[in-house]
Design brief:
Distance between the termini: 18 Å
């Protein structure tokens, strides 16, 4: 079973925060439950979402509080299962490191070390979460807030991927059937529907034929306007030589399978 890393990042450098965000979007076993530069808010996020891993910057100079304050507050929360705490810092003081360890830091990375990087920290955290029994067996999905956060994050990433794929083959944002196609593909990703056009029509309060026609027209238009090299690169499923374009259901199921493997 793939162990999910529910990650909280406590960091005041916006560029570094964006790197963690991008990393979580690229790995399906990492979910970013929150980013903050404030130790008090970090404690609130920890209590609400129960992350099993935390990246903690000791010196929150652009935020408020400090990493030590977070560690001391975490002790007071008395959680059933503590997250694994990876401290990242520019501070080289052994006294500060010792204080962080006494307060509950599990590992300390120096940002000045030659091999330091966000992917390196995340590889380490993923291996630690999987290796520590209490964390690996933690049922994070039992937490309603964490479950909702994970589901919302998945839906957001799924929608972004669908839109990116439709852009690549030239499905216009102005096309009436564009939103219908997005919804149809998303519905198939969640659960294969027998009457997908009817489901989409019901959502938009339109007739089944009008929705089906709008989606097929959007596909036909893209296949007329987009160059053949791009289409062959982006859409690799067989296409009937008679019609020259994918049928509606061929198109929807192709992209449902494609985006599910990408998210």
């Amino acid at each position: 079973m793939n162990i999910i890393v529910n990650l909280l990042v406590i960091e005041d450098d916006t560029g570094t925060c964006e790197m963690y965000r991008e990393y979580s979007e690229e790995h399906d076993d990492v979910y970013l439950v929150g980013i903050t530069a404030h130790s008090a808010e970090a404690l609130e996020l920890t209590e609400k979402y129960r992350p099993n891993a935390v990246v903690l910057d000791l010196e929150l100079q652009k935020g408020s509080g400090s990493g030590i304050e977070y560690l001391m507050g975490l002790e007071k929360l008395a959680l059933k299962t503590r997250p694994y705490i990876a401290v990242v810092t520019n501070n080289v003081s052994q006294y500060t490191h010792a204080a962080a360890r006494r307060c509950g830091a599990d590992y300390i990375f120096l940002k000045t070390q030659s091999d330091y990087s966000v992917p390196m920290v995340m590889r380490f955290l993923r291996s630690m979460v999987a290796a520590i029994p209490d964390i690996a067996l933690q049922k994070e999905m039992d937490n309603p807030a964490a479950k909702q956060k994970i589901e919302e994050d998945y839906r957001r990433r799924l929608r972004q991927t669908i839109n990116r794929e439709l852009d690549m083959v030239g499905i216009s944002h102005r096309a009436v059937g564009r939103d219908y196609l997005c919804d149809a593909i998303e519905m198939i990703c969640h659960k294969r529907q027998t009457y997908i056009c009817a489901e989409v029509a019901k959502k938009y309060k339109k007739s089944d034929p009008s929705v089906e026609r709008a989606m097929q027209n959007a596909i036909n238009s893209a296949w007329r306007k987009t160059d053949i090299e791009t289409l062959e690169k982006c859409y690799t499923a067989p296409i009937s030589s008679e019609k020259g374009v994918p049928t509606l259901m061929e198109f929807i199921f192709y992209y449902a399978d494609k985006v599910k493997s990408a998210v």
